Amino acid sequence: MYLDRDAGDDRDRARHSLANDSKASASAEMLSWARGSSAVNRLDDATLLVALGRLPGVGTRTVANVARSFPVLAAVHEEDEAGLVAKVGKRAATPLREGLATRWAPALAEAERVIERHMTAGITPLPITDDAYPPLLRLIGDPPPVLYVRGDLSVVANPKTVAVVGTRDPTPRGMGVARKIATRFAHGGYVVVSGLATGIDTAGHEGALEVGPTVAVLGTALDKIYPAENRGLAERIEGQGALITEYPLGDAGRATNFVARDRIQAGMSLAVIPVQTGLVGGTQHTIRFATEARRLLLCPRPLEDEAGAPSYEGIWDLVRGGRAREFAGDDYGDLFEALRQKRLELEMLAWRQTSLGSHGHRDRRSSRKGKDGPPEGQLTFGSNEVVAAANAGFFRLGALEGDPGPVDMAELLDALESVLDAEAPSLDEAGFGGVVRALRARRFPERG
After folding, report:
1. Cβ atoms within 10 Å of 396's Cβ, excluding its own
2. Do 166 and 30 lie in a common domain?
3. Does a structural domain hold residue 144?
4. Domain assignment of residue 162, yes or no
5. pTM to 2 decimals?
6. Phi, psi (5° rounding) for residue 248?
7. Does 193 lie in the same domain as 156?
């Protein structure tokens, strides 16, 4: 599974250290490979995250918090109880600590088998620590620690993403509307996400494929494409975009998987676009997750001669309740601007998550002083911060293209304040204004 013998040897030494001595300090070898975007680091991080998720009582949210909190994933084993409580919460810390002490060896061995199986099948295990992980998805409370991907990773990593979703029983004209919407957003440079279901999902994928890539988020493992009638569509999507799932090969599947799938659709998108939906049904889960994640809800104006159809009941409920923005064919310019503003808002949220630990504590890695810290007046993003906020499209203010280097803090704050002036109510509600003002108070000098 590992492409480099020395890296594989380092991984083995780390594994045995963690399994045999829960109180031993991490070796230099262990620290050297735990995070990054190389093929070896990607597989090692995926293996560790899968192993953590197989410990008794350790769930998705806890594993994601570990990934957010530890630049070196293996270092979680060296954290004392107080440190674990601070990073993952008191309730999660106990089973995590107990599992690491008593169940790590079998969990890691099973995780290695899982990763090997996917690699053999041509499937990429994509950990949340990787640059190619969907950047917006990191911002939700319970992002999948590992995604399994067939297709183009650059499409998965694109933050310009919208979800086109809706009922499995649409009207024929509703199908046409969904195709046109997907095609229009694809022409605008957006990746269209949907769930591969029959009905509106299928129309959204097909419309996007006329122009560019699309991403299908599955509620099943990649060896069980559902529904079976969309296997041909899945093959087209894999060739032109990507199929992704959080479920490993061989997963038995449960009805609740499709609800969990809906949080991924919403979480990796700037906006969710329900085309047709009733008052109940799977689309309502995606709508709920979008609201919780502070994403835009955009609804096409119901066609006059179909406005009373049951498939529009959920759309009318959203629009009349002020929960969604209604749009028509001549509104795309305004929609693209709204998406741009939403992206800026989420960029600031990503940056705030970088500066604060997973439970709101200041991240000591981002405020180091002394000879190992960044030059005064500059903010330098290390590998963890890049993964969390920059590489996958965040902070595209002209300073973080390609390999990130120092960012002039004064210039960065000027840019952030201009965004804050334009979007003050929503951003201040999220606490961003206070962050910007606090940083400004430190009086970073201008670049000399």
Report:
1. 13
2. no
3. no
4. yes
5. 0.75
6. -75, 160
7. yes
